[in-house]
Amino acid sequence: QVQLVESGGGLVQPGGSLRLSCAASTTTASISAMGWYRQTPGKQRELVATITRSGITNYADSVKGRFTISRDNAKNTVYLQMNSLKPEDTAVYYCNVNWRSYGLGQSWGQGTQVTVSS
Predict the structure, then answer these.
(1) H helices within the chain, ranges in order?
(2) Sign of torsion over alpha carbons 29, 31, 33, 39
(3) pLDDT one-digit tens code per residue, 50-64
(4) Backbone angles phi, psi at 41, to 5 degrees
(5) Residue 1 confidence class, pLDDT cut points 50, 70, 90
């Protein structure tokens, strides 16, 4: 029902910045909450940030003050601006989208690698 395409990952030095994007494509569904999660080898996927359709945001304590989530409802796109990156931010970042069509559903992006290293 909803396909997601992520972009923007890469290698950055500590203290640097990256911006992730996730575009949702659908012809039938209405997009509601959107968010970003991350995962490192051997660990569970963890929440980074979420944003409702009206713009209410929620952040993991570890990224508050450094990351900013935003969205463009007209484009069904969610962004994650990451500043002051630390080595511990290194992970695969996944976009998550909740949607409503004939029922409720959830889609995950393919994941994009973010590596913070000097």
Answers:
(1) none
(2) positive
(3) 999 999 999 999 999
(4) -55, 130
(5) confident
What's 42's DSSP letter? T
Q: What is the mean pLDDT of residues 93-102?
A: 94
- Strand order in 3-7's β-sheet? 3-7, 18-25, 77-82, 67-72
Q: Write out the two tokens for 27.
A: 């012809």
- Quick one: pLDDT band at residue 38, thresholds 50, 70, 90? very high
Distance from the Cα of residue 108 to its chain's centroid: 10
The closest of 19, 107, 31 to 70, measured between CA atoms, is: 19
Say how many Å lie between the first and final Cα of the chain, rounded: 40
